[in-house]
Amino acid sequence: MAKTIKEPASPKTLERRFGQAMKEMVEQMERQFRNEAIKGLNKSTIKKFEDSSMGEHEAALLSRYQFADAQVGNYARVFLKLANRVKRKLVRRFDNKRLDKLSDKILNSVDKQSKQKFYNQLSSAIGVDPVQLMRKEGLTPQMNALKLETLQWVKKLRDETLEKFTNDTLHAMAEGKSVEEILQQYDNLAEQRRNHAEFLARNQIQNYNSLSTKLRAQKAGARRARWSTSDDDRVRPSHADRDGKVFDLDKGLYSSIDGKYLMTGVDYDCRCTSELIIEDEEE
Question: Cβ(275)–Cβ(249) under 8 Å?
Fold first, then answer.
């Protein structure tokens, strides 16, 4: 007779810790970029005003980065030079080794908790010592691949954030916006990137937990699972459509509402879980 075990929940404390770490990284990058690239350009512009014989009207035009004035294009190039310089500094500050160490530490904690919960439940279901089950797991290559996927995401977050800071500022300059408007737009963008980093980082932990559990379940002989929602008003229609349905672990569960095959916990901010079906060898 088939037995079921509940998918270990993604550890919320570690989700928050990883989300906070990524938010703080973006926060530190945006502060240094603002001070050394955007405000750095503003100071150099003022210096040029003081050293020149321009009148107030010409200086005002330059201070608004009007590209109609031929000299302003030079200030855009100065900004790009400053931006590239600070980007190199920030990539050194948040280098791959540092990001790998940070991510690896949190993922190892996630893995340890999820692994313990899964094998304790499996042990209760099939009557085998959980320590023995863990020793026989043999999933190191697959788990390493899952970790590397998250590590690559962290590096992508760093690089894309710096490119976004640069490109959006250049675009604002091209539109002839004032320094104050550019800084306001930049601050809005920085807040969006902080929230974006925190949200996706937490989702990354959920993904890792769900996919690592899937690998363990398949190794233990599970081929199917039953989808279960949180059963509240926050459940999205496409996930409610999957509630209670049995699906193959190697495919995920399809819904015509979103047109996707999904695993629980993998979709953005998904709180759904699954009951893993462990079938007897005879079945």
Answer: no
